[in-house]
Amino acid sequence: MSTGQENNRTVEIYRYDPAEGGDGHFDTFDLHIEDESNTTILDVLIRIQKEQDTTLAFRYACRVNMCGSCGMVINGREGLACKTNVSDFASNQGITLRPLNHFPVIKDLVVDMDPFFKNYGECLPFFEPKEIVEEPAIIRPDSPERQAIGLATECIACGCCVSSCTMVNYHEGYAGPAPLNRAFTLLKDSRDALFTERMDRVLQSCYNCRTEFNCTEVCPKEISSTRAIKFIQRMAMKEPFRKIEEEKFVTAIKGVESAAAIEDVEVGVTINSDGCEGCAHNQPDTGRRDFLTKMTLGIGAASALMVGGVLASAFVGPSMRKKETLWVPAGKMDDLSVGKVTTLNLKYNEKIGIYEQSNVKPVMVWCQSSDKNIVVYDSRCTHLGCAVRWDKSQNSFLCACHGGKFALDGSVIAGPPPRPLDHMEYKIENGNLLVAMVS
Amino acid sequence: MKQQDTINYRKPLQWGEFDPNRRRNMFVGMWAWMWQRITAIAIIVLLPLHIVLTYKPWLQFLLLLAVTFHATLGLRVILLDFNLVKVQYQKALIWGLTGLGLAVFALVWWII
User: Fold this and answer.
1) Which DSSP category does A51 fall into?
2) A214 vs B27: CB contact, 8 Å cut-off?
3) Which residues pair with A72 in a beta bridge?
4) Which of chain A's termini has less CB crowding within 10 Å, N or C?
5) What is the pLDDT of residue A267?
6) A371 and chain B: CB distance < 8 Å anywhere?
């Protein structure tokens, strides 16, 4: 028995008995296969059913890759049992078979394809000619339309793509790759009369694709549904404009009708009244749209708050902070002459928020007596803040702007100023005069 | 349809459920999508951190890396969406663009 070791295969098959219910389990069958390159997975299944377990249920019809009945998950990847050879897998590798994902399991490998064909039907998978012609249509193989559609018409509706698509699981109203591919072949066909109806039905679905290319990878017919969906998405970009055109058309017709006072408004422009109640396309999958709206608003608000908070604290924070009094050195006390007013320029750096500037502010120091009895006047006029200067000849402080005049003790002599000149705090350290700058 | 009520259907198998070989079904396109999502979340987390904690090299490194991946994979989807590149080159796009992005990233980070 050891001679044929390399031709022995362990086949694990998912079993589910509707009479028992439950989650199902795997049964293991050992099989000796003579010619692996000539034995398909379907042959293996038929042999197991004949030789080992007659209750094994699976579905097949044509055996030649044409009908799409035997779609299943073979060693983790969707494919047709009749198209996959045993030799496709390394000889030391077992074979695991299980039913397609995202379909209700009826028994063993047989799934209920009803949801799939319901979605397929939703997309109007039939050709409706614009005009009836008796003769066969002549389509040049090099016409752009024919080239664009390509082999997308070859779909055999096996359901492998739907099984591989992770998005089918997350979007209730998603038609799935194969129905959208079918819709694409007809949407692209200029002879077809149902463009608007079909577009309305696939419009919501076509945005559920996340460009994963799983359907393209597994398709036994090597059709790229992803490509088809992208085509529909590009066509859908024109939809808003089409809707606007339609509305214009409808209002125009209504205008004509009301003028003619005709009762019948239904002139073949009503698109959605197709008598389909409870269909997925009549209740568009708003989940994604809602989610996107909420997420956009939420993330927008959160990031705005975050950025705003950071910016606000950076800009407003420092100015909110209690400012430390800045003691600006004004000069030596010895330089002041007694009984006279000396104008000193204070040079200091001012920090406003994150902005820093160097300022020069003149102050007037009146040295009353030699025993360091001085008054420091702010040079800002108490009227409107112009710079006040000491005028020696008039023995008063003059403001050039509006004729404000202050006496030596700061009191108002003339002009509009409402109050005497402001005094500034000062202190004397080691014979140096320091003036408090509070801005 | 009435038959359905009598037959006890098993709920649909989920993607990868009961499947010891599911790794065979994890195609690079899916990872591209997944990775773009992950980096998107990373950006959401890292960007405010970057604003709050300024000039932290490790943070800048991570953020730039996340942005690189997100941008290149997003570029791939844009190119495919608008048919600027044929869908048959999607895998080449993933590696090509990501490689290009990482090269630019390395250039920015280590050389400039």
Assistant:
1) H
2) yes
3) A79
4) N
5) 45
6) no
Residues A32 and A2 sit within 8 Å (Cβ to Cβ): no
Q: Give A423's strand partners.
A: A377
| Beta carbons of A357 and A392 less than 8 angstroms apart | no
User: Parallel, antiparallel, or unpaired for β A8-15 and A71-74?
Assistant: unpaired
List pLDDT tens digits, range A87-127: 999 888 889 999 999 999 999 999 999 999 999 999 999 99
The dihedral formed by the CA atoms of A328, A332, A337 and A341, expressed in degrees to the nearest 10: -10
Distance CA A28, CA B71 (A): 47
Q: What is the mean pLDDT of residues A168-186?
A: 91
CA-CA-CA-CA torsion for B67, A204, A285, A251, nearest 10 degrees? 120
Who among A76, A102, A104 is closest to B19 (CB)? A76
Is the pLDDT at A365 greater than 80? The verdict is yes
- Cα B111 to chain center, whole Å? 27
Average pLDDT along chain A: 84
Q: How many CA atoms lie within 13 A of A59 on its CB side?
A: 20
Q: Distance (Å, rounded) from C-alpha A33 to C-alpha A31?
A: 6
Partner B contacted by A100 (CB < 8 A): yes
Q: How confident is the model at residue A1 (pLDDT cuts 50, 70, 90)?
A: very low
Distance CA A215, CA A70 (A): 17
Mean pLDDT score, A386-399: 84
pLDDT for residue B7: 62
Subunit contact B30:A212, Cβ cutoff 8 A: yes
Q: Would the pLDDT of A199 be above 70?
A: yes
**A230, B81: Cβ pair inside 8 Å?**
yes
Percent of chain A with pLDDT over 90: 39
- Predicted-complex ipTM score: 0.87
At residue A204, the 3 state secondary structure works out as coil
Q: Which residues contact A225 (CB under 8 A, 6 or more apart)?
A: A161, A177, A178, A180, A181, A215, A216, A219
Nearest-CA distance from B79 to chain A in Å? 11
B:31-90 residues touching chain A, CB 8 A cutoff: 32-33, 44, 47-48, 51-52, 76-77, 80-83, 87-88, 90
Enumerate the residues of chain B whose CB falls inside 8 A of the CB of residue A310: 48, 51-52
Cα B106 to chain centroid distance, Å, stands at: 20
- Are the C-beta atoms of A176 and A163 separated by less than 8 Å? no
**Which range (A354-363, A401-410, B91-100) has the least confidence?**
A354-363
Q: How far is the CA of A416 from the CAs of A364, A408, A429, in angstroms? A: 20, 17, 37
Exposed/middle/buried for residue A178 (C-beta within 10 Å: 0-12, 13-18, 19+): buried
Q: Which of B20, B76, B87 sits opposite A227 (nearest CB)?
A: B87
